[in-house]
Amino acid sequence: MQQLGMGQAVQQALREEMNRDPNVFLAGEGIGVSIHFNPYLPTHGLLDEFGPDRVKDTPVSEQAIAGLAVGASVAGLRPVVEIMFNPFFTLASDMIVNHAAKLRYLSGGKSTFPMVVRIKTGAGFGAGCQHSHNLEAWVAHCPGLKVVMPSTPADAKGLLKSAIRDDNPVVFIEDMMLYFAPGPVPEEEFLIPLGKADVKREGEHVTVVTWSKMVGVALKAAAQLEEEGIHVEVVDLRTLVPLDKETILASVRRTGRLVVLHEATRTGGFAGEVCAVVTEEAFSTLKAPFRRVTGPDIPVPVSPPLERFYIPDEEKLKAAIREIL
To answer: How many CB atoms lie within 10 A of CB 61?
Structure first.
């Protein structure tokens, strides 16, 4: 078992899939060049290894990058393109939402449109609101797009390989704070199916459903509450679309309590969808009202103290758990 940061795990997945399938190529702003000089970053070294025909530096235009991906997919290639920051998805959304997401439906399911849109996300770098806003709920709201948000290096590698091989457009969202956090990654070939959640920690008193960077917050809070005799089950969604309802419902039926944790702002956040599923299909098993622990409904501040306030932490999560016990 090798120890890799998430950025390195993504890099390894890209390399393996490019070696496996000559139709896979990468494109994005500064890919493999100046901004990716750090070996922990996902496309480091790939330009030198595969050349400019398969690792394409693009203009600073998210619309052009997304349009390139859609056109290449229609032509039978498997593009993996990068949108540098999550809020820039708004610039690329016309091609992704109005074209990529709908083409397979419009073909009556007769054609495939494989493409992966990798997006960096997450607060914690002091990069300000134009670079840090989490928009996964926007993407999940659009039929035809699969949405992946890994929390560990191993999950990132296994899920990305599955996303590249999928015949539908996949939006693969990577929290930048996880790029440098090491974790075990199998050295042999492995894939993780899209649409399958993972119980990262078992418990009997409350279910915490979360994803991406917040999985680490949930695990830290669970370890601290263990000392108080509170056993928290942590469910990592890994993919928001398709949503693994079965794992969520099985956990809540066991514990009788639900807290959903995410960094994105509260109103319209994906926590609402998780809570709706539980209310519709497992309401009678709830012993207390569910809770949402989220970022506040404000732009992400650039000031370090205010940014720390914005990001949900284990203290806020523990307080919500204690409320419903």
So the answer is: 13
The CATH topology of domain 2-185 is: Rossmann fold (3.40.50)
* Residue 195 CB partners (closer than 8 Å, separation 6+): 146, 239, 241, 242, 243, 244
Domain edges within the chain: 2-185, 198-323
6 closest CA partner among 126, 172, 146, 175: 175
Give the tens place of pLDDT for each residue, 156-198: 999 999 999 999 999 999 999 999 999 999 999 999 999 999 9
Q: Does this chain's domain 2-185 share its CATH topology with 198-323?
A: yes
What is 198-323's CATH topology? Rossmann fold (3.40.50)
Contact predicate 7/41, CB 8 Å: yes
Whole-angstrom CA distances from 100 to 48, 87, 218 are 30, 19, 34
d(CA 164, CA 116): 6
Beta bridge partners of 116: 80, 170
Joined tokens for residue 198: 């993972």
Q: Which of 131, 133, 205, 262 is catalytic?
A: 131
pTM over cut 0.85: yes
Residue 131 is among the residues annotated as catalytic for this protein: yes
Do the Cβ atoms of 238 and 159 come closer than 8 Å? Answer: yes
In single-letter form, the type of residue at position 88 comes to F
What's the start-to-end Cα distance of the chain, in Å?
Answer: 39
Cβ(248)–Cβ(214) under 8 Å?
no
Q: Of the listed 17, 29, 36, 62, which one is catalytic?
A: 62
Longest dimension (CA), the chain: 58
| CA 14/CA 204 separation, integer angstroms | 38
pLDDT tens by residue, 270-318: 999 999 999 999 999 999 999 999 999 999 999 999 999 999 999 999 9
